[in-house]
Amino acid sequence: MDGEIINFGWNQFGGWRITVRVDDSTVFYYAHLSKYADGIGKGSKIKKGQVIGFVGNTGYGPEGTEGQFVSHLHFGIYKTDAPSWYTIDPYSYLKWWESNL
């Protein structure tokens, strides 16, 4: 989905990560990236299908920690329509996107 990057940079657990607001009550979270695509940063507007980063194995330590686990993408969907953000299971969305794109 199109969106705006609202969080960007290092997180002790998520490593190099990006949080994208896609609507008034939903954000997508991408973590453990190896690096970001050129031109990506906080406040960047992104388009569906645009490369924003690359799969990696960063996180679980101070900035720059990598190699603690196999490379993968941690993807999360958070709803922001409550006082505290809460996660929703992305599986059904991923299956739908896979069969409809």
UniProtKB/TrEMBL annotation:
Question: Please, which domain of life does this record's source organism belong to?
Answer: Bacteria
List where the protein spans the membrane: none
Upper lineage is:
Bacteria, Bacillati, Bacillota, Bacilli, Bacillales
- M23ase beta-sheet core domain location is 2-82
Q: Supply the name of the protein.
A: M23 family metallopeptidase
User: Where is the signal peptide, in residue numbers?
Assistant: none
**What Pfam families has UniProt attached to this entry?**
Peptidase_M23
Q: Which organism is it from?
A: Paenibacillus alginolyticus
Keywords noted in UniProt: Signal
- Tell me yes or no: is DNA damage among this UniProt entry's keywords: no
